[in-house]
Each structure stands twice: as C-alpha cells, then as structure tokens.
## 1
Amino acid sequence: MTSPAARTATARSCANIAFIKYWGRRDHALRLPLNGSISMNLDSATTTTTVAFDSALDADQVTILDTETTEKAARRVSEHLDRVRAQAGIATRARVVSRNSFPMGAGIASSASAFAALTAAACAAAGLRLSERALSILARLGSGSACRSIPAGFVEWHAGEDSESSYAEMIAPPEHWDLRDLIAIVETAHKEVGSSKGQELAGASPFGAARLAAAERGLPIVRRAILERDFKTFGEETEQEAIRMHAVALTSRPSVLYWSPATVRIMHAVRAWRADGLPAYFTIDAGANVHVLCQGADADTLAARLRHLEDVQAVLCNRPGPATWLIDEHLGID
Ligand code: DP6
C-alpha cells in the first residue's frame, strides 16, 4: 500500500556505447575518471525506472523486473537514493521498480541507463529540480558511465578536476549523424568481472600510462570526426581505443579476459568485410559482445551478415538516442 504522502516519478534513459572509454579512475569513491570519454546513446537499449518516496516505508524496496534483484544491486541503488535524499534534505524511504528494454541477461552493460534513470526519477520524485549538468554529476556518483546517459545523442564526459567539474554534455544531437551500433550478442551470462571491478584493477596494468596518453590523444580526434561525420577517422580511432582498453584489462592483476572465441571471430569478420569494401568498425565493452559501428546505408547488410556468424544469438540495432526524460508511466507503483 502506498500512503497519500508518496511522491512518484518515472524516467527513461538510454544505455550508451563509449568510443573513447572510461577505464580506470583517479578517485574511486567519487568515480572521477583518469580520462575524458566520448559515447553515443543507444535508442533501443533503455531502462525505465519509477521511484516512489513513501513515508510509510522503513526501508527502500528495490525491484528490477524480469531478473533476480541481488542484495548487492539493491544496496547500490539504496546508496544512490541516499545521495538524492541528502541533496533534497529528506529521509523518506522509496520503492523503486526498474525494467530494461533489452533482453535480460543480454550482457549489455546496464549500469549506465540504470543509474541515469534512477537519478532522474529519484530527483523528480524528491522535488529536486536540477540542471542537466547537476544530474550528470549525480548520476556519475552512482555509475561513472551513467553521467553520459543524461544528455542526448553524442556525448563527451569531461574528466574534470573535481566532482563539480566531472560531468557529461552533448557534443552533437542524435539527428546530427546516422551512425548505427549493431550489437552482436554472443554471450548472455553475467560477466565474471564486472566493469566496476575492472575499473579498480586497471591501475595495475603496466600499459596503463601508455593507454591513457593514447586515449587523451584520441579524444579530440573522435570528437572532431563525429562533428565532421568522418566515418573512417572515427572508426579507426574507436577500434584502436577498444583494443587499448582490452590490452589494459588483459594486463591487469588479475588479468581480465572479456573476449570469447565468438568475440574474436566477429573482430576478424568485421576487418575482413572492411578490407572488402564494407565500412564497419568494432568496439567492445567489459564483456564478450561486439558493437559493430556503421553508417545507416550499410546497417541492413551488416546486420544480416552478423546474424549468419557462428554463435551470434541476436543483433540489436541502435541509432543515436535521446537524453534522459521523465515519462508518465508507473511500473506497478500506484
Ligand atoms: C567498459 O560505468 O560500469 O563500459 O563507474 O564502476 O559503475 P562504474 O563503471 P562503469 O564502467 C563502464 C566501462 C565501459 C567503458 C565506458 O562505458 O566508457
């Protein structure tokens, strides 16, 4: 039962794919990254979250639909609500219900869309009216990559000097460029080493400094390539950065190997197709699935080819997605 004092809001956020990655932190508690990063929101991979503050509750209740809500996940949500409560000056507990649009267990990183939607819904329900920048900062404290799911389209996260200067902003709106991200799903199990753990281990790689310097050089190259819709420059730098991030993961202690045999097969296939004249590049996050980047005109051909590859269970096609927004839909909360 919900008391009349309940204040409810629902928000929806896109996941995002990073072209220059966030991999390694300067400050773990504040989730300040070693380097700035650039990403695109994914229009078909969203999280919708309803938050209802209710004075009748004596503890937060967290439900992630279509999956088992682990204690660890619920605690992380509750800790994030504490940040919102602190800013709003309230102590009221909340009911949280969240649902992903993408198939559960699809292995797509969902912490970005999850914490962006949670931040926006919780702030609205708590009566906090924050700027996009303030929302991005708050989302970052929940999960670093979530700060990039607050603004629309193509987004840059400024590493910043401190918490107040580490936030994301749009560099181009979704309609700027018909770039596509085709996610080849090859693994649906939960990854062994989550991205949060991987971020902590990154500091131990002997290649960390070299990757950081290369990522810093790559950032303006990718930004400019997006602004100029220069697909070749964009793709080359993005693919290199993915390899660099995974080189750091592989050489962390313990070593983190996210790729499966199917991942490597797709990497080879994309390079072979490219050599054959089909413009496509790959990037890979902290998991085995491969994000294949192409322009609108080539999306159908590529998706069909990817579906024919061994071990590809599904291909999720994404266009540049919108900013986080508040919607009038309540996921089972009155
Ligand atoms: C490989 O944002 O999940 O997707 O701040 O610990 O929640 P936490 O890490 P998270 O890391 C994302 C890692 C990545 C690269 C990226 O999105 O930039």
## 2
Amino acid sequence: MKLIAPSLLSADFLNLEHDIEMLNRSEADWLHCDVMDGRFVPNISFGIPVVQAIKKKAQKPLDVHLMIVEPEKYFEAFAKAGADIITFHYEACTHIHRAVQQIKALGIHAGVVLNPHTPVAVLEDILGDLDVVLLMSVNPGFGGQKFIERTYEKVRKLRSMIAAQNTTALIEVDGGVNTKNAKALFEAGADVLVAGNAVFKSEDPMETISLMKNS
Ligand code: DX5
Ligand code: ZN
C-alpha cells in the first residue's frame, strides 16, 4: 500500500481550515496529528480540542500520534475527539497489549510507535494485534529534522517479520520524509509516509503530496 499522511504540525495554525481543505482536495490519505506533552518529548504541540476542531473539516481519517507519557489515560478522549487511528509510543507505555486492546475497544485502529533506538524485534509478540507500526525516522519532538538512514533497514526487517507471521499491520514512517526518499521507503516496504515540512514548506503542497504518493 502507498499512503501519504501529511503532518499538520507543519501547517499554518492561524489558518488550519485552509490547510485542511487543501488536504481534502489533495491525494493525501490520512491527516497526521502530532500530540506532544513536553514530558515524553521536549516540545508541546496541541491536544484534544484542536483534534476535535480538525475533525469538523477533515474528510479523511485522522491519524493521531501520541507523544505523551501515560498515553492510555487519553485514548478515550482522543477517540471521542475524532481519532480514527491512535498510535502511542512503546517507550511510554508498560502494558502495550492492554493499551492496544483499549484502543480497539473504542472502535478505532491501534498502532505502536518505535523511537529510532528501539529495535523492531520488541514487537514480535504483539505484531498480530496491531493495525499500524509507526517507525520514527527522527527523534520525535520537532518537524523539519534530518531523516535517519538506518530506518530503511528497520523497515525491511519489520516487513519480513510481518510476512513471516502472515499478519497485516501497516508500516508507517515518520520524520524527514520527502520527495527524494519516498520511493526508496516504499520499495523497502513502507505503507504509509508521514510528511510535515516536505509538504507544507513546499511551493505546491498538493503537487508534493501527489509526487510522493506516485513515487
Ligand atoms: C515529529 C513528528 C512528525 C513531524 C514530521 O516528532 O512525529 O510527525 O511532524 O515532520 P517532518 O516531516 O517535517 O520531519
Ligand atoms: Zn508524527
């Protein structure tokens, strides 16, 4: 699968409606919402009321990436706010299996995120329960960082784990993704590419989304 999930972290916060309408018209598949708490990551972005507002205009699924400690406390609130997919960090949660079941019980899709230093092997015994695995290709917290090249190897490893278990989790990659590395990421086995700066800082965001999707 080749899906594009533009990250609203790089959108114009004074004019979110304008950017969401552009994404509705574009070839984007999901809208990626980065929630940061200033504890799990050294930055604070936006939370539940903003996701709720985005939902009112978005015509595509909301992919909510929680970069927060104790994420399980907030699954219900984000599901009510309109999340269609919730991903939370392996590094921020002790009881991953329980947390995944909690998200699914809310009637939405569940995913686990791995920081660049966390090996994909830690997901071996939970992979069959996951709808998405999100591999961070930068250290989470900020848009506009440089892509970590080792990510390709992680994507390939995860792709073979998924094949070996004959399961269906989508592989999502987040951080430093652009029109130059999109093709190689899809070839390595990624299904969903998140892109913030590459989309919103480009001259023609709709064209950039199209280029990435068709690369
Ligand atoms: C980083 C976030 C990303 C970020 C990506 O912590 O999880 O989703 O918005 O931004 P770019 O594509 O600019 O690296
Ligand atoms: Zn993200």
